[in-house]
Amino acid sequence: MSDIITTTGLCKQYGKVLRVKDLDLKVPEGVVYGFLGPNGAGKSTTMKMLLGLARPTAGTITVFGRQVDSRNRLAILKDVGSLIESPSYYGHLTGAENLQIVSTLKGVPAKDISRVLQIVRLENQKGKRVGQYSMGMKQRLGIASALLGNPKLLILDEPTNGLDPAGIQEMRELICSLPQQYGMTVMVSSHLLSEIDQIATYVGIISSGELVFQERLSTLHARSRPSIAVRTLNNQAAALILAEQGISCLTQENHLLLPRLSDNELAAHIAGLYERNIGVVRIEERSKSLEDIFLELTGTAVSL
Known about the structure:
The protein is of the alpha/beta class. The chain is 36% helix and 27% strand. The chain has helices at residues 43-50, 73-77, 95-106, 112-119, 135-147, 165-182, 193-199, 217-222, 235-244, 263-275, 290-298, and strands spanning 3-14, 17-23, 26-28, 32-36, 58-63, 66-67, 80-83, 153-157, 185-190, 202-207, 210-216, 227-232, 250-252, 255-258, 280-286. Strand 8 (153-157), helix 6 and strand 9 form a beta-alpha-beta unit. The longest helix has 18 residues, at 165-182.
């Protein structure tokens, strides 16, 4: 699987403040890439640099295998759709009329309007004035504008902001369908851990402008595998005995953390401790939530 976006040492400085620092992104082709981080972490700044809306202070950006510069930026961006912050629209015009303006600016045939309206499920609302649209409908119209011209890459900045639960669900289903049905790569930012968890296959986590994690979402979930916490009357001696039995464990809050074991294996090891006169006073199963893992990576709480 090739990378559709790569950045190397990407930095952005405003005044004396470094908002993005040495960012090395790798966005594989044909996936939903979740760009996760607290508010103010540098997500929007990064996306603006990818789209040429902000000039990097340092580093390089490669899209579709071509390094982006002032000479080829517009040619590359013809295959990129985007929705950064709130969608722009003319409230007194209908949805179809708004898309007609965008298609003219993009040089896209007007017949593409029907296609994108169908993708975002607004075909029955195309004759309605956008000022009368709900927030969710306006967001979907913004994505329809981004989809005009059938881009290979779609960049969405916080697309569920301000939506009610029904709107969030609709947006989630739409984003998930784009790689599968239309072969697009979608990069979507959010400060909502639960949203990224439900739509992304790859995830990059940014904190204070620095990338602290980038891998498959399943790799992040693997960090939450459960362990067994055992408390004894002599944890130090118990750890030595378990090590003799090939079980490595960590000490945390007066407990020994054992790896995941079957019931029979755990019973055998506990019996071994009793045989060596080590009293076991507590056994419990522990697992880290994604929230716990995020806190470990960033030291910052993220919205659920």
